[in-house]
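[audit] Reproducing an earlier prediction to check determinism. Same input, same settings, fresh worker. If the tokens differ from the archived copy the diff job will pick it up downstream; this log only records the rerun itself.
[audit] input (278 residues):
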Amino acid sequence: MLSVLNRQRLFLGWFMFPFIEVFGRQVPVYALMAILGAAALCGVSVVFAKIRGKVPAEDIFYMLLYAGIGCLIGSKLLYLIVSVDVYWLEDKSLKENIRYWLVLLTTGGLVFYGGLIGAALGALRYCKHFKIPAGEAFETVVPAVPLFHFFGRLGCFAAGCCYGMEYEGVLSVTFEHAIGAPNGVPLLPVQLFEAAGNLLLFAILTVLYMKALPRLSLTGLYLVCYAVMRFALEFLRGDDIRGNALFLSVSQWISLAVFAFGMVLIVGKYRKCKILPA
């Protein structure tokens, strides 16, 4: 009989490979999970748009294309800001610096908060250009964002990035083929904790969306809930790719700002519905 710990490691072992072979070629699991997450986000958002009927499903789809472009730019930009120590190699030629920047842009990681901000700006750009009600469009899409993030964190776990602190116990995992995490060291699987939290958040927001509560800002609720979750989970992270400022990580400082902005949206919606005094 396998022990609980051995059964856990045997089960998780299937998800701890950074690459899988497809038609004789190695495919990064992280990229595959990102594609699945994006497909799930688009599919669910289009269905939500058809259910609510306030924003055409076609506009939701094209808005997500704009958001996707912004997401890629924002996530990479914030990664460069918080993780790159040297932006220009003074002892190298212009050609070598260009090659250096191409490597930075095409390799390395992505930061979720940067992607979230970039996606929001891209979506706002689409709404403004095509005169789509941004508030309603965001309320349609935001409930599915945690589902996208769920797949993303599974990809992080497969690649070994965004790993947790060193920990020996029932919940620990030990990578042997990871790209980002230290191999052979028992770690806390914080990626899976965040994936589970995002899946739960997706379920909650979906139920509330189906109830069509006009007094509640789902966008604000998502930002508040995720900010709290991310702030807490940052204490369990073992990597320092997000950078640090004073006694908190950069992501924790951003979480505080996101929490405040989410509360503004929630309170603003209640005031608009005349539940709270203006």
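[audit] rerun output stored. Observation attached for the diff report: The chain has a mean pLDDT of 86.
[audit] end
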